[in-house]
Amino acid sequence: MSTYDEGHTVAGWTGTAIGTVGSCVLGLGICTTSALAVTGGIAVLVVAVLVTWVLHLAGWGKAPGVRPVGEWRMRERDRSARAGHPGCVGCRLAGRGRRVSGTAVSTGAEAVPERA
Fold this sequence. Notes:
mainly alpha, two-stranded antiparallel ribbon, 3 helices, about 5% strand
């Protein structure tokens, strides 16, 4: 079994299910040349991304990388989600991550001086 166990979360499965429906609607719209179905399929795919992101931020997704075997259960909620996961794009987009005295910690990018 993989030591990463990626995607075996409520957020992962919910996003995949909604995304599958959106892909089917989009494909149907392309096959039938229906602009309404294509637009609807794209809208459902956007909803899938947003629902997955919100569930991840609520603790129903997991951080990338290796997790202990005890945290592999799908119903295991991630209690560290409020602080943000290191290296997680979704957490970074939400403004979460490691903070030191109220300012974000640089993750390898050069610091840009503030304008006066």
